[in-house]
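Exercise 7b. Backbone tokens:
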């Protein structure tokens, strides 16, 4: 189960009372079917659409969207006060998201938000828009063409077929997962051919033909059909097959329909599925006669040369498959137990997720970042490049490819309107009244579906040609050299990279001193420390949020100037060697839509000799408040000036950036000694760390100590950063840990105190991130202390259910025993058949205003009001609370009037007899 990070005020549906309550507090009117909610603090209402539910004794925080949230790859998250509360589970209606509560505190629910990849889901477009967005955005200048164009079809004709094998069981998934693949291969190709395997992302799984009905169930219900997401890359497959690759795209609907409760959001399951398919291909290569017909029509597969291509969560899945192929995962969580009979030469990751922020440093990668991604909108896949720095040998090329105007879905034709069998949509939502200047259809920067798919296919083929075929001529298209592949036109595609023939680097994440500028933090709630001001509009892929509210050591250098000439100096702890390098390559970004920022680049050696290497110009990407356009451009300056000046290139002590424009801002991500070429990659023998989760019963008494399960495998030693989250506040404490196989170097003890009172589960969570000599599989885990006490019985009885007008009606909600958490009960206002009803004119006006946000015109029976619900919360440690209906005295002669209160369950269904309140006319 995905557990909550708690910074709670205990909240209840509709109404909160403590002991004897004053007037009922209500939230503002909300969309239909969404009940109001309030926080435990009377003056701090929960936002519309939120409530606390109680189902069979399990309390949960629930948010219901006014519209259906399409099943996507970005993880829906609840945040409060800037901290991650937890990852809710979606209900089948596609609108309701529910997070089990592990513990509660009497504190404010401040700034409660629903986020998906940094994008607000619980905020109307009008409220979210930054009115400062430009009226129009211009595409970047067209780059010169590269010496080769990998998007051109090859000489082979192609053959297509499909196979379906017996489904497989994966750990943690109740329903079996399909083993289905569509094969596109070169026809009549001689010899063994390299393999490209495609894995789609998380999308709706089932649809009803002839309707707009889609869902993310598995297996599909009667009358529904599986959405063939795996057939969405046929054009990419055909291009590769024409160039001599055997390609297969596999289906993962069975994982998509079941990964909502997985702590890793399905990464390990997807890896298991990928490696199970590769194992079958290894079997068929050894015994071709046993292969399905679609495979027998293809040339023999060369599994020593495998390219993995993953889209969205499929990207994270193939990254994990590459890791698991080198560094085996814990057997208990792995769905594939056989030998590794293949070699992963590289990965292509299209708009990928990386919830664990755990890339594989020694497997080359190309990450496509769609500039108009409306699903994984924070472009967190940038971490597949940035997160590899300094972890291993640094020889694998990790390329980031920013595709201006591309959305998330159109790389897959089965997710594209007009091409898909099932209903599909443009994931970047378009507001006709406030069109986005970059990403709305018809803008100069937005790509059509066909333009985007063609560009995507071209860069997939580029990765294959570099990583698998070893053609270094393609590198200039991927590594920031500023060349384009004409087959991708008219798409504007920009690149930068780390690794390959980059040598020593100036890395803000390391031990550096900065003068004249600011060493800023990528993730920090303190705006004085954070790199990017949230008020600026837009975001940066380099600063994609992970899980802690603050990350230690993840940094950049921020420059801000109001006049030219003020130098910013970056001095590493020890001098760096740039000897034998051709240039210094810097990754720098400036605000979106800005142009002409000029910086002089200088270096100084350990003896104090200084050389000006040259001037660079950096332009911003097209961007708006809805795009992640603060993205670094790679610029290079030759080292010839340093050589001529007689600097000791073995001991460069500092780097200087001097702005030459009148004012501006810039951020330096890093700078490297750069040389051309793509070196051979040899995978290092790294440690692997996996955090597990231990579930224990709290017991009735005593204090018991448990340890978070941690597995360290591999060879040698490495360094990780460990985060331990406080179960009450959600705040994290971090420390550096040296890990070794077989040792107890990560030792986190948890104390669990037993009792006999009902409460929620308490989750003690741990996170880990690789820094050096290590890879991380399962990045999150901990100890969950499960409540083992029954929930007290709830009863409702009248205190004053027959009153004279001007007096309040009262009911008491009681518990059979006190609990350690707030217990809630919801009552729906209903008519009393055949009797005059209490109306809006008979109750306190302020009470109505608190309920509805406005007082309706005329006289309306209470039972006919929209959102006519009351609720009571019994505070922790108490056993009763009251519900009030305050009536008013008037001068109008009226008959005796009545109001009914129907206890309900969390689904709004009757749960017990109707309670009746009677109001007599005053004499």
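Sequence design result:
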């Amino acid at each position: 189960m995905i557990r909550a990070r708690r910074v709670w005020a205990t909240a209840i549906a509709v109404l909160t009372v403590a002991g004897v309550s004053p007037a009922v507090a209500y939230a503002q009117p909300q969309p239909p079917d969404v009940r109001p909610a309030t926080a435990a603090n009377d003056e701090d209402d929960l936002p519309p659409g939120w409530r606390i539910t109680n189902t069979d004794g399990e309390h949960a925080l629930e948010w219901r969207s006014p519209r259906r949230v399409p099943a996507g790859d970005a993880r829906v998250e609840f945040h409060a006060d800037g901290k991650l509360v937890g990852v809710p589970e979606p209900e089948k209606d596609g609108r309701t998201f529910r997070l089990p509560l592990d513990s509660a505190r009497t504190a404010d629910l401040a700034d409660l938000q629903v986020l998906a990849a940094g994008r607000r889901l619980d905020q109307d477009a009008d409220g979210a828009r930054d009115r400062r967005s430009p009226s129009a955005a211009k595409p970047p200048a067209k780059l010169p063409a590269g010496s080769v164009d990998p998007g051109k079809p090859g000489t082979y004709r192609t053959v297509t077929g499909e196979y379906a094998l017996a489904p497989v069981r994966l750990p943690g998934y109740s329903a079996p997962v399909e083993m289905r693949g569509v094969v596109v291969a070169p026809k009549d190709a001689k010899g063994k051919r390299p393999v490209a395997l495609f894995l789609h992302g998380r999308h709706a799984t089932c649809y009803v033909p002839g309707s707009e009905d889609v869902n993310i169930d598995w297996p599909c219900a009667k009358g529904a059909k599986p959405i063939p997401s795996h057939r969405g890359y046929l054009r990419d497959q055909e291009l590769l097959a024409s160039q001599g690759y055997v390609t297969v795209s596999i289906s993962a609907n069975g994982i998509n329909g079941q990964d909502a409760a997985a702590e890793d959001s399905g990464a390990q399951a997807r890896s298991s599925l990928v490696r199970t398919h590769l194992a079958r291909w290894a079997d068929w290569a050894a015994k071709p006669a046993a292969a399905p017909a679609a495979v027998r029509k293809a040339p023999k597969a060369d599994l020593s040369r495998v390219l993995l291509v993953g889209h969205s969560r499929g990207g994270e899945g193939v990254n994990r498959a590459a890791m698991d192929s080198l560094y085996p995962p814990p057997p208990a969580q792995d769905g594939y137990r056989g030998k590794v009979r293949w070699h992963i030469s590289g990965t292509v990751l299209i708009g990928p997720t990386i919830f664990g922020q755990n890339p594989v440093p020694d497997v080359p990668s190309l990450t496509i970042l769609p500039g108009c991604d409306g699903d994984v909108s924070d472009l967190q896949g940038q971490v597949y490049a940035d997160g590899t720095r300094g972890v291993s040998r640094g020889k694998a090329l990790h390329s980031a490819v920013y595709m201006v105007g591309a959305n998330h879905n159109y790389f897959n034709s089965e997710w594209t309107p007009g091409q898909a069998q099932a209903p599909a949509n443009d994931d970047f939502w378009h507001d006709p009244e406030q069109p986005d200047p970059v990403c709305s259809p018809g803008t100069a920067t937005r790509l059509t579906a066909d333009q985007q798919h063609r560009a995507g296919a071209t860069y997939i083929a580029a990765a294959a040609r570099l990583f698998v075929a070893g053609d270094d001529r393609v590198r200039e298209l991927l590594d920031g050299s500023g060349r384009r592949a004409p087959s991708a036109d008219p798409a504007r595609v920009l690149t930068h990279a780390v690794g390959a023939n980059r040598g020593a680097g100036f890395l803000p994440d390391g031990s550096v001193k900065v003068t004249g500028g600011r060493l800023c933090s990528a993730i920090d709630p303190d705006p004085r420390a954070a790199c990017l001001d949230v008020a600026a509009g837009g975001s940066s892929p380099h600063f994609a949020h992970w899980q802690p509210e603050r990350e230690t050591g993840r940094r950049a250098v921020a420059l801000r100037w109001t006049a030219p000439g003020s130098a910013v100096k970056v001095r590493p702890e020890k001098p760096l060697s740039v000897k034998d390098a051709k240039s210094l390559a810097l990754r720098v970004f400036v605000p979106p839509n800005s142009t002409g920022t000029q910086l002089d680049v200088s270096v100084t050696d350990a003896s104090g000799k200084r050389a000006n290497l040259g001037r660079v110009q950096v332009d911003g990407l097209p961007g708006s408040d809805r795009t992640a356009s603060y993205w670094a451009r790679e610029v290079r300056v030759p080292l010839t000036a340093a050589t001529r000046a007689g600097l000791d290139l073995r001991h460069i002590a500092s780097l200087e950036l001097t702005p030459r424009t009148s004012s501006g801002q810039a951020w330096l991500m890093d700078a490297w000694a750069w040389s051309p070429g793509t070196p051979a990659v040899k995978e290092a023998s790294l440690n692997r760390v996996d955090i597990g989760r231990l579930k224990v019963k709290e017991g009735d008494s005593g204090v018991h100590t448990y340890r978070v399960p941690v597995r360290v495998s591999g060879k040698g030693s490495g360094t990780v950063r460990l985060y331990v989250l406080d179960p009450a506040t959600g705040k994290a404490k971090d420390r550096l840990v040296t890990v070794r196989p077989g040792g107890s170097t990560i030792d986190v003890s948890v104390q669990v105190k037993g009792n006999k009172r009902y409460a929620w589960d308490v989750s003690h969570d741990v996170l880990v991130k690789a820094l050096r000599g290590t890879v991380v599989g399962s990045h999150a885990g901990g100890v969950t202390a499960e409540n083992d006490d029954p929930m007290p019985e709830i009863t409702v009885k009248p205190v004053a259910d027959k009153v004279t007008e001007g007096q309040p009606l009262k009911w008491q909600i009681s518990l059979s025993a006190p609990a350690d958490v707030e217990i809630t009960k919801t009552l729906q206002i209903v008519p009393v058949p055949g009797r005059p009803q209490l109306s809006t004119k008979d109750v306190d006006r302020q009470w109505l205003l608190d309920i509805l946000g406005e007082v309706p015109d005329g006289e309306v029976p209470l039972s006919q009001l929209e959102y006519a619900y009351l609720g009571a919360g019994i505070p922790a440690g108490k056993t009763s609370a009251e519900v009030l209906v305050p009536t008013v005295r008037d001068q109008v002669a009226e008959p005796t009037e009545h109001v009914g209160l129907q206890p309900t369950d969390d689904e709004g269904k009757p749960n017990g007899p109707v309670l009746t309140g009677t109001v007599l006319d005053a004499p």
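Instructor comment: Confidence is low (pLDDT under 50) at residues 1-44, 103-108, 125-134. The two ends are 60 Å apart (CA to CA).
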